UniProtKB/TrEMBL annotation:
NCBIfam families assigned: ComEC_N-term, ComEC_Rec2
GO CC annotations on file: plasma membrane
Domain of life of the source: Bacteria
UniProt source species: Psychromonas ingrahamii (strain DSM 17664 / CCUG 51855 / 37)
Alphabetized Pfam families for the sequence: Competence (PF03772), DUF4131 (PF13567), Lactamase_B (PF00753)
Positions of the Metallo-beta-lactamase domain: 549-738
Name assigned to this protein: DNA internalization-related competence protein ComEC/Rec2
Segments traversing the membrane: 29-47, 54-73, 242-268, 280-299, 353-370, 391-411, 423-446, 453-472, 484-504, 513-531
Subcellular location: Cell membrane
């Protein structure tokens, strides 16, 4: 009992780290050390000593993995494995010479984006090699896995865009042990050209599958390289609810282990009876199957999900091989604890929670429906048809149970799911597991042995994947996105169903207690819904999304909404509107925009205009100047002109500029002033000094606003002293990318606002910004400090 308590108390300490505002500093680590010794000296409290122990373990491990030093902020020299200085000391805006060992498979599509281990920094060999994300905007040579190269780079901390409904890039990168990015300025030389069997196989498969339509899928299933999957196919995979089949993790490793186990067990029983091998017989089968799973994990590059899957499999096999009595809950707890002990940062990975919860739910379902695991044979044998029927009944039960019970996690993580996913997976799981993946892996082997057979097998796998997508392509209509409120309601009903089911089962034990708890539960639900309805606010909000270097602002009042700008579009075609603005608008239940304003034609403001227009069909569209034809084609589009007025809920909106379209597109920005009679907001786009002077002359005191979106992201050519004094804002918001190459906001601009006692907030540093405005006051919230103030949303370099 004591060991079980120790186990789960340790797991709780690890999980609590998800809610820490920061990691332990040096003084707190010393305090925890003293507390640990004190608790160990008191027999009755000794069990609590795991709390400070694992809190210190998590902090030291995380600091070492992400910065290369145990003490990220006050480095201590001469510690084993730790570097004398953390990586944050190299984030100084200067060039550094580094030697790295490439850890990614490189193709033409990802030559400028790969991962590498840092081996040397400025001529000094490191005791610990942290993982870096390498960015190379103009590659001059081709690199490959395991090679060592000398580069001239500039360091930048990982600091992803931070929005409530967007992809949490920083959390994901930290879970992958990446804390810093190296921007390659030049390649100096190749230091070492080490052979990599994985890279060799990858190159052969890449060449042999070059003409296939599903080359990207084949490489994803064999090498865990998803860089060649086309964006349209990625979207389809997500919409069909089968993304787990293309990410090598627990499902693939365990299925591959099972296949080898069954084959080797059959071969052993047939040719080497137990009387010859004795006790070694089943151990030989386990070892062979584990070796096969290990080789598959190697092909996948020992990515962290495959590491966790293999570790969990290895530990479970070892426990079972020892023939020790171990309850199911203890086995699950032990494997989870071993994963966290091996890699505490796995807690930040969504894949861990999805796979682990799925395994737990499958085991719970099997425990609750024992007839599916203890199938009685009739006349000593189950006929083939009955076997198949039983298998599909079992698979159907598992799929529907997983779909229902995983729904809360699915909605919390993605705010969407496919209604047909259980039916699609009913065919997809056996098709991929029993046919496509084995054929693909067999083809990888034959790519070295006999290429014509490899080409044939790759072609068969390619055809099977194509047929699958052709059959199920139309099922993407069942992929539904939900707002936060809708998702919460669905999660609530799922939990309610499960709880009511449990209470129904309890009535056989104690009917009165079951009915009492049911009444309390339903009464609480009705009270919660009523209080939620009473607390609905009619105040207006201003929300500035963190979209990197660009601008996107949402204003809401009494059910109406106005979106001002969309964020940037990059040469690759990537837009932040698709991954940040659009998901956020969906999450808060906006289905149609009332007003859509594009300040001017610059790509960092109008980059996602077409995406927003198609997704939300705005009632009115205003632009500061004509846009390029592909950007926005809508007959509702009109040009912004000074003097335009309209209402937005309880607010009045007025266009202050431009008076006419000029040659400077920045000064063509559509300037809006929005106010409720008490507080006001001024949206300025990219206007510069010349236009600021015109606005001062034209409007003077009418420019005064409570909140100001800094002109041109805080450029030194904007935000003149006269303009700031005339507007007299309480807050100024800089919408700029983190450590952007233009240096926005400029130091002299920040000093101007500081001199006039204006409170400054920067989306690049603070993430998503929200102003909640009532008749009495204004409440400002930021993502990193208020909405999600956790250590993994901050940088060790700030």
């Amino acid at each position: 009992m004591t060991m079980r308590l120790l186990l789960w108390l340790s797991i709780i300490v690890f999980i609590s780290s998800l809610f820490w505002p920061r990691l332990l500093d040096n003084n707190e680590i010393i305090f925890c050390g003293v507390l640990f010794i004190s608790l160990m000296l008191i027999p009755r409290l000794r069990i609590l000593a795991v709390i400070p122990f694992f809190a210190v373990y998590f902090s030291l491990y995380t600091s070492l993995a992400l910065t290369g030093s145990f003490f990220a902020f006050q480095p201590v020299t001469n510690l084993p494995f730790s570097n004398s200085a953390p990586l944050q000391a190299s984030v100084d805006g200067r060039n550094h010479s580094i030697v790295v060992q490439i850890k990614s498979l490189i193709s033409d599509q990802n030559r400028g984006y790969f991962r590498a281990k840092l081996v040397e920094l400025d001529g000094h060999h490191l005791s610990y090699s942290p993982l870096l994300e390498m960015r190379w905007y103009a590659p001059t040579v081709k690199v490959q896995e395991n090679e060592r190269h000398l580069f001239k780079v500039r360091f930048k901390p990982i600091y992803g865009r931070a929005n409530p409904a967007g992809f949490d890039q920083q959390k994901y990168k930290y879970s992958e042990h990446i804390g810093y990015q190296a921007i390659i300025k030049s390649h100096i030389k190749k230091q070492k050209s080490a052979f990599s069997l994985r890279a060799y196989l990858y190159e052969r498969v890449l060449n042999l599958s070059d003409s296939l339509n599903n080359q990207g899928a084949i490489l994803a299933l064999s090498f865990a390289d998803k860089s060649l999957i086309k964006s349209a196919q990625k979207a389809l995979i997500q919409q069909l609810g089968i993304a787990h089949l293309f990410a090598i993790s627990g499902l693939h490793i365990s299925l591959f282990f099972s296949c080898i186990y069954l084959c080797v067990a059959y071969f052993t029983q047939r040719f080497f009876p137990k009387k010859y091998l004795g006790w070694f017989s089943w151990r030989f089968v386990n070892l062979t199957a584990l070796l096969g799973a290990f080789l598959y994990a190697y092909l996948a590059g020992f990515s962290l999900p495959t590491q966790r899957a293999f570790l969990m499999l290895l530990f479970a096999v070892c426990i079972l091989s020892m023939k020790r009595k171990c309850s199911l809950i203890d086995l699950l707890g032990l494997t989870f604890f071993m994963i966290l002990l091996w890699d505490p940062l796995a807690l930040l990975s969504l894949s861990l929670w999805l796979s682990y919860v799925a395994v737990c739910l499958i085991l719970i379902v099997l425990w609750h429906f024992p007839q599916f695991k203890n199938r009685e044979e009739k006349n000593g044998e189950i006929f083939g048809f009955t076997k198949i029927k039983h298998y599909f009944k079992f698979l159907l039960l598992i799929q529907f149970s997983l779909s229902l019970l995983m729904l809360p996690i699915q909605l919390l993580s993605f705010s969407s799911f496919s209604m047909l996913a259980p039916f699609i997976n009913l065919l997809a799981v056996p098709l991929f597991s029993l046919l496509i993946i084995p054929i693909t892996l067999l083809a990888v082997v034959f790519s070295v042995v006999h290429q014509p057979i490899a080409v044939l097998l790759f072609t068969i796998a390619d055809r099977l994947i194509s047929y699958f997508f052709i059959v199920f392509e139309q099922a993407k209509f069942a992929y539904l996105s939900f707002s936060y409120d809708q998702g919460s309601l669905l999660i609530f009903f799922v939990v309610l169903i499960v709880v009511l089911y449990i209470l129904f089962k309890l009535q056989h034990v104690n009917a009165r207690l079951s009915y009492f708890f049911t009444f309390i539960l339903l009464s609480s639900v009705l009270l919660l819904l009523w209080s939620e309805k009473q607390n609905k606010s009619h105040d207006w909000q201003v929300e500035i999304l963190d979209i990197g270097q660009g601008l996107s602002v949402l204003v809401k009042s009494q059910g109406q909404s106005l979106l001002y700008d969309t964020g940037p579009r990059y040469p690759s075609g990537f837009t932040t509107a698709a991954v940040e603005t659009l998901p956020y608008l969906h999450s808060i239940g906006i289905e149609r925009l009332d007003y859509f304003v594009i300040s001017h034609s610059d790509i960092d403001h109008a980059g996602g205009a077409d995406i927003i227009n198609r997704a939300f069909l705005p009632e009115y569209i205003l632009v500061g100047e004509p846009l390029a034809p592909p950007a926005l084609q809508n007959e509702k589009t009109i040009l912004c002109r000074a003097g335009m007025k309209w209402s937005l809920g309880s607010l009045s909106v007025k266009v202050l500029s431009p008076l006419k379209t000029g040659t400077n597109n920045n000064n063509n920005s559509c300037v809006l002033r929005i106010d409720d009679g008490n507080y006001s907001l001024l949206l300025t786009g990219d206007i510069e000094k010349k236009q600021e002077i015109k606005l001062i002359v034209q409007y003077r005191g009418d420019l005064k606003s409570t909140i100001l979106l800094a002109p041109h992201h805080g450029s030194r050519h904007s935000s003149t002293n006269a303009f700031i004094k005339t507007v007299a804002p309480q807050w100024v918001v800089f919408s700029a990318g983190f450590m952007n190459r233009w240096g926005f906001p400029a130091a002299e601009v920040k000093l101007r606002y500081q001199d006039q006692n204006v409170r400054m907030v920067n989306s690049g540093l603070n993430g998503f910004i929200r102003f909640k405005i009532t008749t009495d006051n204004i409440i400002m919230q930021t993502y990193r400090e208020d909405l999600a103030p956790y250590w993994y949303h901050h940088s060790f370099s700030l």
